Amino acid sequence: QFYWQYRYPNGVIAIDTLRAPADRFVELELTAPESDVIHSYWVPNLFAKVDTIPGQTTETSFRGPVGTYHGQCAEFCGIQHAEMFATIEVMEADEFDTWLTEEARRQESRESVLGEQIFDGACAKCHGEQGQGLIGPGLSAGTVANAAVVAEIVRNGRGKMPAIGEEWDDRQMKALTDHLKERFRGN
């Protein structure tokens, strides 16, 4: 909940920021997990708002010039609705192609910053950039040490925390838990 996750055809995952090639027709399939609520994906300088309905797929498309475009969820979706931003970075097509190929390699070899993207986009909105706790509890080396416990909470929720990663694959979960251990080491 409260973040946008992108999955490219080659398996690359991105959080809150979508990269796209300039002057190519880009098609987006939008959905929300069955346990989520309705969101509206809206980047006004590229396309009209599109609802993401739990368990259903809606589609939109755009073609844009090089630039950075900002959007936000346009459907009140809960306590962190105001933090649900979207960014689309439209880049030269050849630059995009190179980035996409390299990012696939980096994510597969665990050299990417996917874990940091996940934390910043999906976790920090409630737990704080430094893990200090905003509307969620604080995080420390002790609370993130056990990857299996973190995965259980992220995939199934606990207390007031929704299951934000119920559809994440193991690669994505490992990226997050590795990042958490590094980020909160010594805290």
Report what the structure shows:
The protein is an alpha+beta fold and 187 residues long. It has five helices and nine strands; from the N terminus they run βββββββββααααα. The chain has helices at residues 93-108, 114-127, 141-144, 147-156, 170-183, and strands at 5-7, 13-15, 17-21, 26-30, 39-43, 47-52, 58-62, 67-73, 85-91. The protein has a five-stranded mixed sheet with strand order 3-9-8-5-6. Helix 2 (114-127) packs across helix 5 (170-183). The longest helix has 16 residues, at 93-108. The radius of gyration is 17 Å and the shape is globular. The two termini are 27 Å apart.
Question: What do the pLDDT scores average to?
Answer: 90
From the helix content, strand content and strand pairing, which structural class follows?
Answer: alpha+beta
Spans of 5+ residues with little confidence (pLDDT < 50)?
A: none
**What's the order of the H and E elements?**
EEEEEEEEEHHHHH
Q: Main β-sheet: number of strands, strand sense, barrel status?
A: 5 strands, mixed
Please report the number of helical segments: 5
Shape: globular
Oligomeric state of shown chains = single chain
Question: Compute the gyration radius: what is it?
Answer: 17 Å
Query: How is the largest sheet built, in terms of strand order?
Result: 3-9-8-5-6
Q: How many runs of DSSP E, i.e. beta strands? A: 9
- Helical percentage: 25-40%
Report strand %.
15-25%
Question: Distance N terminus to C terminus?
Answer: 27 Å
